[in-house]
Amino acid sequence: MNEMNGRVVVITGGSGGIGSAICRLFAESGAQVIVTYRSDEAAAQSLVSGFPGDGHLAAHVQVDDSESVQRLAQIVAERYSTVDVLVNCAGLTRPVPHDDLDALDDDLIDTIFRVNWRGAFACVRAFKDLLSNGDGGLVVNISSVAGVTGMGSNVAYCASKAALDSMTRSLARALAPRIRVVSVSPGFVEGEYSSRMNPAILDEQRRKTPLGRIAQAHDVADAVLAVATSLRFSTGCIIPVDGGRPLG
Question: Is the Cβ–Cβ distance between 154 and 95 less than 8 Å?
Fold first, then answer.
């Protein structure tokens, strides 16, 4: 498990369910991991304290505040000099029935796009020069099957993930050959969010998934690590981690 030995990895939203699984796997693979958090410092510090090796960091950032992102990039530049992988995992949503157009108010729409899309773009913009150092960098955007199927927590969330995938393709072209950009696109992932859902909905998702289960956070983490270590000639693509759910 030394594929990432000596590499520097920044993971936004790193203290969340999917983010923490990605952080742990990269740390176990030898990377120095910068875990960002928005509000739960204790969770981020606890996560980092359990990593093997040294050189890890828990750092506060608000991805929808470009100045906050720039400050983080400066801290990382001073401490590490380079970044090998940036994982944009920070995101948010709120369940709103797709046919209830009035409930999807403007403030929620703007917040979803500000965090899920603009926040990811701000991070790429801030870390672009650091990612261009060394052997070249990698950006992994954590997307969602909702961006393809149009089925998800609300219409704006689905649209924000479709926009994220479009950005992946655009930036993969614009930043090549020094920086690769890839989306990893999960379906339902078991965790805190899914635990609040009606169990009948989750059972239906399992039945309609050809591989017969809902993804775990480690499935997403495995895909991200594979992009960094094995799929080195891939860029501008959307890698699904959904068990074949769109086929069901």
Answer: yes
pLDDT at 1: 63
pLDDT at 200: 84
- CATH classification at residue 194: 3.40.50.720
Q: Is residue 199 part of a domain?
A: yes
> Would residue 194 count as lying in a domain?
yes
Q: What gap in Å lies between CA 80 and CA 177, rounded to an integer?
A: 22
Could you list the beta-strand ranges (E) of 115-186. 137-142, 179-186
pTM of the prediction? 0.95
> For the sheet containing 57-60, what is the strand order?
57-60, 32-37, 8-12, 85-88, 137-142, 179-186, 238-241
Choose, from 37, 80, 157, 193, the residue flagged as catalytic: 157
Q: What is the mean pLDDT of the chain?
A: 95
Q: Is 121 a member of any domain?
A: yes
Counted domains in the chain: 1
Q: Quick one: tokens of 117?
A: 């899309």
Q: Is 80 a catalytic residue?
A: no
Residue 53 maps to a domain: yes
- Domain residues for the domain of 45 are 8-247
Judge whether residue 62 has pLDDT over 80: yes
The confidence score (pLDDT) of residue 235 equals 98
| Burial of residue 224 (number of CB atoms within 10 Å: 0-12, 13-18, 19+) | buried
pLDDT digits (tens, 9 = 90+) for 146-184: 999 999 999 999 999 999 999 999 999 999 999 999 999
